[in-house]
Sequence to fold (367 residues):
Amino acid sequence: MALLVDSRLLMRRVRDLRCLTPRRHRVKEKWAATRTKHPPTSLALQHFDATYSIQLGKLWPSVRVALLSERKYGALLNNFSHDAVLAGLEAQGCRDFTSDTDTEAQTSEVSTEEESSCVSMKKSGADGQQLPPLQLSPHIKCSVFPRADIARFKPARPDMCGLLGYYLMDAASVLPCLALGVQEGHNVLDLCAAPGGKTLALLQTQCIGFLCVNDSSVSRTLRLKKVLHSYVPKQFLNDEKLRITSFDGTKWGEIERDTFDRVLVDVPCTTDRHSLMEDDNNIFSKNRTGERRKLPQLQLELLLAGIEAACPGGEIVYSTCTLSQTQNLSVVEQAIYLAREQHGINLQVSHTHTLNHISEILWFFGT
Ligand SMILES: C[S@@+](CC[C@H](N)C(=O)[O-])C[C@H]1O[C@@H](n2cnc3c(N)ncnc32)[C@H](O)[C@@H]1O
Fold:
């Protein structure tokens, strides 16, 4: 893996040198002259080196290598498809990691390549009951190629009804959906839902009573609608089962309080891997510095809104795809404090209780 990173860095260095070499064509020269000296991906790496080396200590070098390595996808199986997708993927050597409990080799593969974080919490009901053990949905399945196999999935094909067989996403992105522990007839809110990978995973449980899907970005909500129509039969997308909105999620507490059995708060964050790999749409671009600095506050407001939206006894899962303690633990701690002080809401954090069940599947590093 180290070799892979070295060769990437080498390629980047060669590209940089090429840019500095004088060119005959004026257009190229101009491009080289205006080329940013500090691309956002380099700024992201500098930032992570500074913060994560302190936060993660000795673990940081290996996590750094994983973050800079080729991304490894999981294929979320679409139970609505008529094709025998799982069998097809198994024939290619893939395994469903959500039902794989004794494959240490495979679990470490997934864990070192992902940087997601999720914490679940329960809003205390009048009865103040202890948390029941988490029941993972057996219907959320995600296939991955085995350890050291970086084969790519073929594009999913439509079945006879035009529905695609699987959706490619980071394997760890399935975790928040499992951790939500959706049960039969639950009223569920997905507060920041676009482009819809986790919504799709939640729908795989096929037991949700009503699903409310929201994302403040209208363009991303349109993408989400396209995703749903490519994977889910129309009868599951009617007004009685699903509502799609584009509200500012931070205001949800003013719209619908004490309503949902389960709330997923999958917030915008520094998306660490993307920030290291892609200069386009990168939160570390100089012109997005303000937006980046405001992320923890936005995350806090979204989580508080999600907490307010949950019914007494309801559960909330907060998830990000960053390793940042400022965007994970600190946000959760502040939200718990403010929920109690400002809204009189008590929360039980079920981080450990969630991990105890899922840790057989993925490796976790607690911060
Ligand atoms: C990490 S992405 C969500 C990914 C999605 N859950 C999935 O699995 O495909 C975060 C989303 O939050 C949305 N967002 C940002 N600010 C928001 C707000 N104030 N209210 C609701 N959504 C917001 C962004 O548009 C973005 O789509």
The first helix runs from residue 2 to 20. Confidence is low (pLDDT under 50) at residues 1-27, 102-114. The pocket of S-adenosylmethionine is lined by residues 173, 192-198, 214-217, 220, 248-250, 266, 268 (CB under 6 Å).
